[in-house]
Target: Oxidoreductase UcpA
Amino acid sequence: MKRLAGKAALVTGAGRGIGAAIALAFAREGASVVLAELDIDTAQQTAAHIKAQTGARVLAVRTDVTQSASVQQAVSEAEQAFGAVDVLVNNAGINVFCDPLTMTDDDWRRCFAVDLDGVWNGCRAVLPGMVERGTGSIVNIASTHAFKIIPGCFPYPVAKHGVIGLTRALGIEYAPRNVRVNAIAPGYIETQLTHDWWNEQPDPAAAQQATLDLQPMKRIGRPEEVAMTAVFLASDEAPFINASCITVDGGRSALYHD
Model:
């Protein structure tokens, strides 16, 4: 029996990277999946790939997570296509790394609009239905930046700390209605964003090796390793896990110093 059989899931930022891996893993486990993505062309290509790989029901919907009406429309389209949304994964996010004292107001607002407001917009769109039905699972993709600080990354960790707070608050608020809200905190994961950062450095190969050297397992994570954690939290195998965060970083955040 597939672990998400009969469930409908909506994944934001699912066109590539961790979001695409989660959407594919959900489809393989029997879910009908909506890819809610700002870049609709990428989302449609990913949806076609997932459908070809799994035969699952997959829908791509253009979604701007910074706009609550856009997220609500995505949920409405998901409900029309597949019925009630059983699982929401708030994955959409952006990196905004600035010096605090030279950061612009626009940088601050852009970071929070996507990385925190976008998570709340997703939760707010699905919670009424989940509460009414007395069941549902929300998985928020946070980051190890939510509890570890790297200089030069402001205000990204501030937003990610907020995601953990939101996860805990909503998890407790709606626990009596059997709606679970959890988070995943990935560490270094091999996505296009990671490669883009390496390639922006003066010596990309050296930057990549320096990253690998920091890892206890001497490698970084793969998107599918985050995805399988999301499958677990979304499934009926985790009925008593709520208001929690699972760290997926190969042990990096457990180190006291290098």
